[in-house]
Amino acid sequence: MPRIALVLNHPVRLQAWLFHHPRATEGAPADDPWLSPAERARVLRLRFQRDRVRYVHRRRALRAVLGERLGLPGPAVPLRLGLHDKPELDTAALAAPAPHFNMSHHEDHSLVVLCDEAEVGVDIEGERGWPDIDALAAMNFTPAEIAGYQALQGVQRESAFLRVWTRKEACLKAVGTGLAIDLKALHAGLETDTREVPVPTDAGTLPVLLSSHTAPGGLLVAVATRC
């Protein structure tokens, strides 16, 4: 499975791999032996064959990385679907300590990140013809983020949108809330610097360490780890 190791300059030590999946459109991916029964059911709920194939590729990539780390064959990695269908390890079934991990994808690319020290959230994005980034920014950015965004034009504005979006997504994934909070209350910033960001949740404010990166192919990556 084609992949490259990424070096992400983040305050907490990470291991990261970027996968590029083949654009297969045929086959019966729900029968893939690497999938659990719950994952096979998830595949069958997807409407389009392209999405089914991508889902299988992504799960195989995740199982390959975790299996290498845990000393298990990929199909034997005890993954289960948690909150918001987020994959998680059944640690009770493991003999060795399990790393924290997170995964993100953009079209035919997947990013898998492991972290031993803290919960981690990642997001990866690239150009994909967003319908109306100005409207999305107005609905999801803080006033300071909107001001900085509106001061830019053209390609710079689109890049700024993707940078803020990935940073917010990584923060939410690190604290495990999904999109359950008001993104306008979460200031991640347009900058690429590494900073501590307070994330508002129902359980109170949770701080994360947030950083931005670039990956081959012009992909933008954001990583957040719990403090």
Short recap of the structure:
With 227 residues, the chain is of the alpha+beta class.
What does this structure look like?
The chain is α+β, with helices and mostly antiparallel strands. The protein folds into two domains: 3-117, Alpha-Beta Complex (Ribosomal Protein L22, Chain A), CATH 3.90.470.20; 123-226, 4'-phosphopantetheinyl transferase domain (Ribosomal Protein L22, Chain A). It has helices spanning 37-45, 49-70, 133-140, 143-150, 154-175, and strands at 3-6, 15-20, 79-81, 87-89, 100-106, 109-115, 120-125, 195-201, 204-215, 219-226. The strands form three sheets. The chain has a four-stranded antiparallel beta sheet, covered by helices on one side. A four-stranded antiparallel beta sheet has the order 7-10-9-8, covered by helices on one side. Strands 3-4 form a two-stranded antiparallel sheet. The two termini are 33 Å apart. The mean pLDDT is 91.
